[in-house]
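TL;DR need C-alpha cells for one chain.
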Amino acid sequence: MIGILETLGYVIVAGTVAQMALGLYGTWRRGYLERRSFAAEARLFERRVELSLRHAEAERDLAVNSWSGFRKLKVVRKVREAEDVHSLELVAHNGRPLPRYLPGQFLTFQFRLPDRSKPLVRCYSLSDAPSDGGRYRISVKKVPAPEGAACDPGIVSGYLNDVVREGDILDVRGPTGAFTGDPASDQPIVLIAGGIGITPLLSMLNAMCDGQTEREIRLFYGVRNRDQHAFAEHIAGLRRLYPTLHVVTCYSRPTEACVLGRDYDRPGRIDLALLRDTLPSTNYLFYLCGPAPMMESVAGGLRDWGVPSEDIRVEAFGAATAHRQPTERPAAEAKPGVEVRFDRSGKTLNWDGSAGSILALAESNGVALESGCRAGHCGTCIVAIKAGAVDYVAEPAVVPEPGTCLACMAVPRDRLILDA
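>> reply
TL;DR here they are.
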C-alpha cells in the first residue's frame, strides 16, 4: 500500500513538474517569438528608413548633378534579352560619376544618323534599379515603322539593336520623368506591363526587391510568346526569392514551343477580367506601361471597378503609342474656329480639334516644328507662346518654362500666337 502511495506521489510530482516545464516553455517560446517578431519589424523599419533616405538622396543628386543639354555616354555592355530586344549599359565617357535616378525614369537620346538631315530624338526608360555604380541601363525593342505614322520610331530602335556596339558614344540628356515608384513604401502595388513596357516597371521591381521588401507586389506581364519574353529568367529568379512577389505572365500568341505553367501562366491578354479574378481587392497602387490600347482598356476598367484615379498611374512610350494617355486630365476645350497663328511662318490656322495637338496641326499645314518623342517627354517640341494660352491633353513629363508649351501635347485654350 505504501509503495502504491509513493508511486502515485511520484506521478503527481512528475506531472506537476511537467506542467510547470510546459508553462515555462510556453512563456519562453512566446517571448522568443515576440522578440523575433520585434527584431524583424525593427529590421524592416530600419530598411524602410534607409530606402527613404536613399530615395531622398537620389532626388537631391538629380537636382544637383544632373545636366542640361546632351552629355556623352559610352556603351560598355550590350546584351540580348529577347527577340529584337537588347539592353545597353552606359557610363560617362569622361569617367565622371552619373547621378542616381528614381525608379521608373527615362533618358532622352539624340541621334545624328548618316541618312538624316536632322537629329532624331527618342526617350527610353531606365530598366534597372538605381545603383551607386555610375551605370545606366536601357532596354530597347526593335520596332518597325508603323504604316502612315508621321515619324519613324523604328529607325532609332533598329539602329540601337543592329548597329550600336560596345564602345560607341551616344548623346544623352539626364534622367527625368514623373512615372516613379517609391521603394520605401509598404503600400501594396500592382505593376501591369505590355511588351517592352516592362522596362520602367522592372526598374521599380528591382529597386523594391533590392530593399529585401516584404511589400506585396503583383506583376502582370503580357507578351506574344516565349521568343519575345524579355527578362524571363530574371523575373523567375525574383519570384523564387521573394514570397510577397506574385507574377502572372500572359502570352497573347503562344506557339507550340510555349509550355503553359512553365513559360507562362495565362493565355490571352491582360484585361480587367484577369485582374478581378486574381486580385483580392482594389486596395493597390496600379502602375501601367504598354501599348496605348492596353492601357486605355485596363485603366478605364480599373476606374469602372472603383479604383480612384489617383491610384492609377500610366506611362506611354514611343511616338506611336503616346498620342493620348488614359490618365487624361480635364482640359478647357477650345471653341471651334479659334485662331492659331504661327508667327515666323506667317500662317494663321483655324483650330477645330481634329488635329489632336498643335504639333499635328502645324505638320498637316506645312509648318516646320522640331519634334522627338511626341509624348511630352523629351522637350524637343518646346515653342514660345507670344500671346494666348494652352492646355494639355495629358500631364507632360517635361514641365515647360512659363511662356512656352510642348506642341506635341498642347491644344489652344483661346486665340494663340506662337513663335514658329
